[in-house]
Amino acid sequence: PARKGGARRLHGFCVAPLRAPGRAPRLRAAGLGRSSCGAPAGGMGLEPLFQAWSCFRRRKFRECADLCSQLLERPPGDQAAWSLKTRALTEMVYVDEIDMDQEGIAEMILDENAIAQVARPGTSLKLPGTSQGGGPSPAVRPVTQSGRPITGFVRPSTQSGRPSTMEQAIRTPRTALTARPITSASGGYVRLGTASMLTNPDGPFINLSRLNFAKYAQKPKLAKALFEYIFHHENDVKNALDLAALATEHAQFKDWWWKVQIGKCYYRLGLYREAEKQFKSALKQQDMVDTILYLAKVYLRLDQPVTALNLFKQGLDRFPGEVTLICGIARIYEEMNNISSAAEYYKDVLKQDNTHVEAIACIGSNHFYSDQPEIALRFYRRLLQMGVYNCQLFNNLGLCCFYAQQYDMTLSSFERALFLAENEEETADVWYNLGHVAVGIGDLNLAYQCFKLTLVNNNDYAEAYNNLAVLEMRKGHIEQARALLQTASSLAPHMYEPHFNFAILSEKVGDLQRSYTAAQKSEEAFPGHVDTQQLIKQLKEHFAML
């Protein structure tokens, strides 16, 4: 019988883990007691600089910047106010470089940093290969176009796989809710830079072209605040690199912080080997978790996951129980399709931090696809108790309740998910899963309507096209089924179901050549599929008889 495509699909949660990033040293309160603007205001009012510092500490960065601007209008210019304003403007657009990482189309297609074009199995993220850890097969767990299983948590690296052609790279994949930037430097970084420019009606706060970097490099406290302003607020990596190089030279190459910043600049410019040298040098001077995470990012971009794993494990020897390092190991195993090892490390994360959303979501998703919906339900209920309240969670709760035979909660969970959906892609996912529930209870008319509503919300939903084709085949509408399957296979060439169903359909109507071509594509997408292998064997026997 023809297979229904697209295993039921769990959502990932878009909740970024909180981390304390490495920053420039804070301004000392001793230097803020009395500024060059005169004595504190009389009465109950606060001195303006102290008030600005108070706003900064309470994360009211816009008010802090406005107060500093007023102070800077009075002669002579106050260094403390200038430094505080640069830090306030930086904090307004600050993004942690460790968590914010999205590979652009240019980096993926025009990548010249490949170490080996044909890597050994288990040593590359580009060719994750078959499941090495006994995880669920693609028949049960959906995969991305690179062959990796869908994760339980949305991260930039899991939004889509590495495309093999430029056409696939430019076409927005169904799992990514936003189009990929052309390059990583033109993505979030440029958007942040332009948004920050609009916050100043008089133009930029600091005119970088007129700055004498050599002078500022000799003042370490000002230099660090200025570097973060240039790097994050202005997004001018080359000027930031010039300042960092002069500052580290002034510090006689003994300040690890500047080496990390130079490494970040090199990484942003795509000079990964130079970035690796800087991070390694910084680690020799000062052991820091952040530096280990930056260095691991470099190795992952160079497609050396095994080196990154060894680095994380060495880091755990020096920082036992560090959650970010254990989570980094789990992520790499998951991307390498080693699901069982990833689950073990996510459990280790929960031993250290039992409110870690990513670990709970990934373990829950792994249990669901391992045919243990009751256990998955416990993990998703835990997320609900922690205050996560979104469409994805209720979608997953609805699926777990259905497959755990708790039918009373299924439809109410899906109703809540539809109510909380923030965009059409999320609504499409919920209707698609409702279609699976309808197939499960035998109501094929309801299933047909649900899959149609999926396509109304998201016209590129390959799994819905495939399942509609199966329903059309059951009704005997061969031509409609054929058209739907061709659409599904062109939208998602990495899925085996449309190819297999098309092969079955073509074989039934006697078109053996097309059937054989589609069966070969199905086998390429899922080499372990027994039904495809049997079909190819039958077709070869037919051809031999001819």
Written description of the protein model:
This protein is 60% helix and 0% strand. The protein is mostly helical. The protein has a domain at 48-93. Helix 24 packs antiparallel against helix 25. Mean pLDDT is 81; it is low at 1-7, 12-44, 160-164, 172-182 and 190-199.
The poorly predicted ranges are 1-7, 12-44, 160-164, 172-182, 190-199
| Radius of gyration (Å) | 28 Å
Number of helices: 26
**Span between N and C termini?**
26 Å
Number of strands: 0
Principal-axis shape equals: elongated
Protein name: TTC8 protein
Organism: Neodrepanis coruscans
InterPro entries: BBS8, TPR-like_helical_dom_sf, TPR_rpt
Biased composition (Polar residues): 156-167
What is the strand and helix layout of this fold?
Layout lengths: L47 H10 L3 H13 L5 H15 L11 H5 L56 H5 L17 H11 L14 H5 L2 H15 L2 H14 L5 H13 L3 H14 L3 H13 L3 H14 L4 H13 L3 H14 L4 H13 L3 H13 L5 H13 L3 H14 L3 H18 L2 H14 L4 H14 L2 H14 L5 H12 L3 H14 L4 H16 L1
